[in-house]
Design a protein that fits this description.
The protein is built from 6 helices and no strands. By secondary structure, it is mainly α. The chain has a domain of about 120 residues.
C-alpha cells in the first residue's frame, strides 16, 4: 500500500457506526461529538484552537468545511440547551430555595453569557455528528461509489466499455 493511501476501514476503525445497530450508531457518534472528535472515524480532532475548526479530519480526511450556513444549526443546539437549563433552574430556585430573586437572575444571566461561549465547540461537534447520522459520509471511497446513483454507475461503466451512456 502506498504511504499516502488510507488504510482499509476495518483497520482504521474496527467496528464502524454504520455496522452497529440503530441505537449503537447514534451513541457512538454522540460520544465522538462530546470528545470533539471526527464523527466518521472518531480519531481526528475537530478544532485547532478554541474557535478555529480544522478544514479536514487529519485521519480520515472528512471535509469539515461545509457549505455556507451549514453550522447555523449548531446555534440552535447551543441556544436550545441554554434555554432548557434556564427554564428548569429558575423555577426550581424560586420554589425550593430562599435565594433572592435578583441573585438568581444575576447568576442565570451570567450563565447565559458564559455557557454558550464555552459550549460553542460542542454544539458544532454535535451538529456535525447529527449530520453524519442522518446522511453518513462513508469512510471508504468505494462505498461512496456504490451508494451513489446506480444509473450513473452503470452509465460510467458503459462509457468505459465504449457502449455510450444511453439508448440513442
Amino acid at each position: 500500500m502506498p504511504s499516502n493511501a488510507r488504510p482499509p476501514v476495518d483497520q482504521l476503525l474496527g467496528q464502524t457506526p454504520a455496522r452497529q445497530g440503530f441505537v449503537g450508531r447514534r451513541l457512538t457518534v454522540l460520544g465522538r461529538a462530546l470528545r470533539l472528535r471526527c464523527p466518521r472515524c472518531g480519531r481526528g480532532a475537530l478544532f485547532e484552537g478554541w474557535f478555529s475548526m480544522r478544514p479536514k479530519c487529519s485521519v480520515c480526511e472528512l471535509d469539515l468545511k461545509r457549505e455556507p450556513g451549514f453550522y447555523l444549526g449548531s446555534i440552535y443546539v447551543n441556544y436550545g440547551l441554554t434555554a432548557l437549563f434556564v427554564t428548569f433552574v429558575y423555577p426550581a430556585c424560586m420554589l425550593f430555595t430562599n435565594w433572592p430573586d435578583k441573585a438568581v437572575l444575576g447568576v442565570l444571566l451570567a450563565f447565559c453569557v458564559v455557557f454558550p461561549v464555552w459550549f460553542f465547540r460542542y454544539a458544532r461537534s454535535i451538529w456535525l455528528g447529527f449530520d453524519q447520522v442522518i446522511d453518513p459520509d462513508p469512510l471508504d471511497p468505494q462505498l461512496a461509489e456504490r451508494s451513489a446513483d446506480p444509473w450513473a454507475i452503470r452509465s460510467s461503466e458503459a462509457d468505459a466499455a465504449g457502449k455510450g451512456s444511453g439508448p440513442l
